[in-house]
Amino acid sequence: MKTFTLPTVPAELHWHVPPVDWRFDPATGLAITAGPKTDLFSDPGGAVVIDNAPCALMTPPDPSFLLSAKVSVGFASTYDAGALQIRVSEDRWAKLCFEYSPQGQPMVVSVVNRGVSDDCNSVVIDGAEVYLRMARTPRTLAFHYSTDGRFWHFVRYFSLGLTDVLRAGFSAQSPTGAACRAVFTEISYRAGTLADNRSGE
User: Fold this and answer.
1) With contact defined as beta carbons under 8 Å apart, do 65 and 166 qualify?
2) How far is it between the farthest Cα atoms of the chain?
3) Which of 34, 99, 116, 168 has the fewest CB atoms within 10 Å, i.e. is most exposed?
């Protein structure tokens, strides 16, 4: 199946890159399994340009929106991750990841790509799940994380340029491992903006 729908998302999702396996159940959420050596990254040093991480993307019907989910990951190898992803084009995109660091710690990591990737580790998470959220307006994007789904912490505020066409959705990756399974639950989409991108409210 190349396309599917989710009850809380107002547009059809399309597999931009298909996964090894996936399934959706209202009780257990959207599960995406990435195969070996899968990633979305463009090394600023030019050593690596890779775009084979499985991702399910939709075209949001609103110019301003918030997309969030509780993300749990079966961490096994360095850089295993589940992520929210947003794409304007092949070289203009961003992702907010729950990722396994080289130090063996689950972390919130953000990557913004404008030709090459700007990669930033944010905070260590105690546990195998976290809430991630993107907030988009026609000119800006903001990334946040939460440990309880209510109080949100600021990660990043940036722009991918003024555009009318973009896609957003869910992804998994396993750059150094054999596979990674990410599960997205409590998926939420709503039209509108935040009063303050930095406070997350």
Assistant:
1) no
2) 43
3) 116
* Of 34, 5, 3, residue with least CA distance to 171: 34
Would 59 be classed as within a structural domain?
yes
pLDDT one-digit tens code per residue, 115-131: 999 999 999 999 999 99
Entry pTM: 0.97
CATH code (residue 50): 2.60.120.200
Residue 125 located in a structural domain: yes
Question: Residue 131, Cβ neighbours under 10 Å: how many?
Answer: 23
Q: Which two tokens stand for residue 49?
A: 């340009």
Domain count within the chain: 1
DSSP 5-16: --TT-SS-EEEE
Q: Is residue 198 part of a domain?
A: no
Distance of CA 142 to the CA centre of its chain: 12
pLDDT in tens, 174-185: 999 999 999 999
Distance between CA 86 and CA 166 in Å, rounded? 7
